Backbone:
């Protein structure tokens, strides 16, 4: 007996060789079309008021009409949407553990590829595989699994719901927590002013994997986020979207300001909106006037201690300098400097 | 008809995997199981199977991907040893709880530390409460036969549990033996096509797998899972008989050698049981009423059957190729004696801890245990039932 190996691993996959199909760029959906999209994560889940996560998940899943299968890491989204015997999901959904959303997505996709190659699934079928994980499950404990799955070029979208700390366990610092942030394991105290290190730049780590599509976005600019998800779904191979997702509980902000604060992150360039398609950088939102970081920081209780005294002012100055340096570097990468 | 050929234990299992042709294999290399994966990878590259082989970046991801692939709706296999199994530990429980019929070929090796690549059963015993079926093979033939049976057992609708096909590292995995390999078509027909149960790839019927399960339902779900193991035991017996009918080699929960009238008996797993058979034959020729219980199925633990087989003995030695640190006895001894006590069998039992980290055991050492059992027979249960065979000092 001889047979062909799975198509995805049949030919050598050179850097970016499996990236987005030429000429297949769809027009982004308009608001009316989005409102008519199938509801894949329903209301009635138990995420907090003002949580950014369901907004992001719904926008991502609106971006394709194809069947979607979700792999979810342990975290707020998982525990709040699937409390047995209830579920808020209208799509096939799998949770195995915390650190393995990418490995779980690998397994789902591998079985799909296998069965499709054997003719057991309609050859015209076009299933999409999406992994959702928080920053703890992505930057920290799930990083190896993500790196491996991307290197293996599975055809899936990985979305990091990045709220910059372990919110599900009670706001502990992660490697996504920013400089100066108060968390329960980097508490602002008399001698230590919150987190003393800057966050890992995971988006750039994923760019370094030379994967076909990498992007950063926010829930506040739906056209940006949905458009990026559409591109990711049209990509053949792995794609990664890192979405800064405000958490009123951990950020100590007004639940009514989730969307506004995410937009301030983009307006201050603390969280630039950009994408890297086949290695080409593109800034997708450039604020007309770059706002000072204080405007973003002062809306959140996790940075409150920075606004008291000279030490705090020094840290804010450091955050501004870091933000400027990263933004300038990004402009250069995008050929805009 | 099958074909008899010289094969290492690992390659005998790889042959079985080629014939079974699973839909997905996600695996990671670790000595001494590596050869299974690399031989199978060659089958993939040569187009001898249609399997989608995923060379993952860790054993944790291997078992995660296998569990997800099985939940997606297809046949899934894997192989590992020792620390690899330990890294899978978190996911092993989840695979069993989600009732995914993954088959894992476990080439038994000592857990670190210190690091050691040779045989003992500390890896399998460490995973004994994870919910997996565990079948221990004596030789390469059994590794091959059990691999095929594990697929059929795990996938039965009345079982739907993952299983480990265990063989001893190096002693079996790297030793050439004559193995009867059945015809491809016969194996495929015996195993049958995969019948998915609520596959996630059935997009018309979406459902949620692995939800948050709190104090109000978790216990019932666990109780349901527990009720699957007695059924699994029956299924293993049925599949062992069905295998015997098809291929002439029948299997049960255990193999009893001269136990019917035995006064002194040994309980052992894996390749050591093979050596015990020679010792028993030798002792019988000298008039000693010696017997052997080779335990094949450790999970689900066949406690009633073990007690029935041993209750007329005068003294029993239970061989553990694993220590249970901080416990008084090795894991197999603890379970055998718990079964004996619970079922009212008053037979003195001693515990032999041996062979850790690949330390060899010789026939004369086993014969010596039988001779000490003769003393136990007359004096009763010794004050310290544990002894270590083959260790210096």
Residues:
């Amino acid at each position: 007996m001889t047979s062909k190996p799975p198509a995805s691993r049949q030919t050598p996959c050179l850097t970016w060789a499996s990236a987005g199909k030429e000429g297949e760029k769809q027009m982004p959906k308009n608001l009316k079309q989005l409102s008519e999209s199938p509801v894949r994560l329903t209301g009635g889940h138990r995420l907090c008021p003002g949580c950014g996560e369901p907004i992001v998940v719904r926008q991502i899943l609106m971006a394709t009409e194809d069947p979607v299968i979700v792999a979810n890491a342990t975290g707020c989204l998982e525990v709040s949407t699937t409390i047995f015997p209830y579920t808020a999901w209208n799509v096939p959904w799998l949770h195995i553990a915390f650190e393995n959303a990418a490995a779980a997505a690998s397994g789902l996709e591998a079985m799909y590829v296998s069965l499709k190659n054997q003719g057991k699934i309609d050859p015209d079928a076009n299933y999409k595989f999406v992994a959702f994980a928080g920053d703890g499950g992505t930057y920290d404990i799930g990083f190896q699994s993500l790196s491996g799955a991307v290197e293996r070029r599975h055809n899936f979208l990985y979305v990091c719901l990045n709220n910059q700390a372990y919110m599900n366990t009670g706001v502990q610092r992660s490697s996504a927590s920013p400089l100066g942030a108060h968390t329960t394991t980097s508490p602002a105290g008399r001698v230590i002013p919150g987190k003393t290190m800057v966050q890992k730049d995971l988006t750039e780590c994923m760019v370094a994997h030379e994967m076909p599509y990498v992007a950063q976005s926010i829930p506040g600019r739906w056209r940006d986020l949905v458009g990026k998800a559409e591109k990711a779904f049209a990509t053949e191979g792995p794609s990664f979207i890192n979405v800064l997702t405000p958490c009123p509980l951990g950020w100590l902000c007004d639940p009514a300001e989730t969307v506004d604060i995410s937009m301030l992150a983009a307006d201050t360039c603390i969280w630039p909106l950009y994408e890297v398609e086949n290695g080409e950088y593109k800034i997708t939102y450039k604020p007309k006037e770059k706002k000072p970081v204080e405007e973003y920081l002062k809306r959140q209780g996790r940075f409150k201690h920075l606004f008291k005294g000279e030490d705090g002012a020094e840290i804010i100055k450091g955050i501004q300098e870091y933000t400027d340096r990263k933004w300038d570097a990004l402009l250069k990468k995008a050929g805009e400097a | 008809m099958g074909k008899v050929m010289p094969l290492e234990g690992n390659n005998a299992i790889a042959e079985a995997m080629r014939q079974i042709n699973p839909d997905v294999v996600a695996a990671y290399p670790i000595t001494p199981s590596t050869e299974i994966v690399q031989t199978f990878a060659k089958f993939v590259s040569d187009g001898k199977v249609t399997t989608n082989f995923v060379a993952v970046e860790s054993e944790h991801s291997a078992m995660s991907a296998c569990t997800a692939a099985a939940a997606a709706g297809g046949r899934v296999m894997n192989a590992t040893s020792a620390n690899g199994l330990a890294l899978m530990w978190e996911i092993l429980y989840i695979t069993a709880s989600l009732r995914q019929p993954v088959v894992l070929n476990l080439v038994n090796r000592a857990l670190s530390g210190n690091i050691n690549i040779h045989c003992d059963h500390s890896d399998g015993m460490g995973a004994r409460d994870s919910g997996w079926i565990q079948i221990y093979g004596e030789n390469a033939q059994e590794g091959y036969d059990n691999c095929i049976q594990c697929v059929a057992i795990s996938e039965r609708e009345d079982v739907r549990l993952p299983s480990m096909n265990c063989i001893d590292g190096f002693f079996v995995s790297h030793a050439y033996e004559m193995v009867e390999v059945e015809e491809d078509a016969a194996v495929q027909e015996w195993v049958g096509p995969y019948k998915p149960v609520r596959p996630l790839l059935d997009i018309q019927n979406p459902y949620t797998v692995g939800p948050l399960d709190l104090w109000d339902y978790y216990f019932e779900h666990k109780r349901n899972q527990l009720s699957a193991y007695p059924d699994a035991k029956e299924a293993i017996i049925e599949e062992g008989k069905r295998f015997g009918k098809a291929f002439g080699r029948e299997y049960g929960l255990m193999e009893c050698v001269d136990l019917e009238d035995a006064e002194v008996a040994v309980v052992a797993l894996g390749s050591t049981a093979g050596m015990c058979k020679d010792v028993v034959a030798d002792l019988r020729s000298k008039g000693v009423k010696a017997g052997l219980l080779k335990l094949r199925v450790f999970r689900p633990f066949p406690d009633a059957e073990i007690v029935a087989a041993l209750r007329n003995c005068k003294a029993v030695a239970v061989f553990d190729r694993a220590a249970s640190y901080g416990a008084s006895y090795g894991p197999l001894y603890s379970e055998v004696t718990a079964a004996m006590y619970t079922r009212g069998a008053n037979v003195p039992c001693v515990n032999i801890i041996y062979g850790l980290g690949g330390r060899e055991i010789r026939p004369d050492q086993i014969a010596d245990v039988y001779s000490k059992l003769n003393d136990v027979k007359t004096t009763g249960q010794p004050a310290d039932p544990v002894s270590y065979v083959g260790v210096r000092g």
